[in-house]
Amino acid sequence: MRPIRPADHTSPLVEITAAAKPGPPAEMIFGEWYPALRSSGIKRGGTALTTLLGIPMLLGRKNDGTIFAMRDMCPHRGIPLSAGWYDGETVQCKYHGWRFEPCSGRCEEIPSLTSHDSLEPTKIFANSFPVVERDGYAWVYVPEAGAGRLSAQDALPPVPELPKFSTRYRSAHLVADLPCNVDHGIIGLMDPAHGPFVHRAWWWRSAASIHEKTKKFEPIPDGFRMSPHTPSSNSAPYKLLGKPTTTIDFVLPNRRYETIVAEKNGKLRWFSSLTTVTPVTASTCRIDVLAAWDIAYHVPFITPIAKLFGARFVDQDRQTMVEQAQGLRSNPALMLIDDADKPAKWYFALKQRRLKGVGEHPLQGPVELHWRS
């Protein structure tokens, strides 16, 4: 058995200052799939630590390649399982040597038992979670309290997936930790008016480019859609795509899908992204961006160039959240205005509808919103 020395999966973009303490906590939605970390970082016989919805988790990969996710806690006396050993097949607790099969959480051995004991170790289970690899992430299903033991083979909601429109494409991913609760992370994600200020750059937006916009929205299950439209003319990258059409979906609990289909020189090209804001604790969260495209497929170095500009874009949001966290420390009263903040209002209504299990969808049909950005 080898000592468990899990990798530290903090974001390379994180530079949270002492002054930017986390803001007030937010309710978290359980019974959903969340991206835990990049699955490529978990090698055969290896492990990694992360936290989801306030739950410390030990992820790992068995010798046969099977991935697992466990609560990082021995059910016997509460010591973290990551303090113990892992041999590629079982996790052993450092305190009393209890061994667990990590996919099911089933206890395989309690070394202190003697022939006088009638306790059957295999009737004891550590807390394990369904986990599926999809689009390079280890997606973990975090159940509601009292849901019992679950596996990825049970009747669970579909695992989120990045939309793709061809078999040949390039992809990239970005990650950043945010010192705010998931609600502020999400409404920042869907905010349509911050672009010319937060993302001001020669290659994206400028203050002089602000103009009035009109967008149509429609309800979808557990979310809402910005109906297919021509993307903003004041974003330089869109001008390279020819005649693009963009569709943006927000789906509870935390997912923003954007697809762009463009026609250029008689050929269809596409870009898609899946952005998630995942609660790490009740007062902190993490943003993950996964993108794929077949646009400029043959251009040399297109992936590192895309990641360079994408990282700059995400870091602008992160820095804004760091600064906002300073103002949120006192839990001040905030305001939301129409029409630019309407999507945020819909999100809060959808979330309360989900948490309480009652209520109507905040959109009863298609609506049109107007704002300047």
TrEMBL record:
Keyword hit for Iron-sulfur: yes
Domain spans labelled Rieske: 33-140
Pfam entry (one): Rieske
Name used for this protein in its record: Rieske 2Fe-2S domain-containing protein
InterPro entries: Cholesterol_7-desaturase, Rieske_2Fe-2S, Rieske_2Fe-2S_sf
Alphabetical UniProt keywords: 2Fe-2S, Iron, Iron-sulfur, Metal-binding, Oxidoreductase
Presence of the UniProt keyword Iron in the record: yes
Record PROSITE patterns: RIESKE
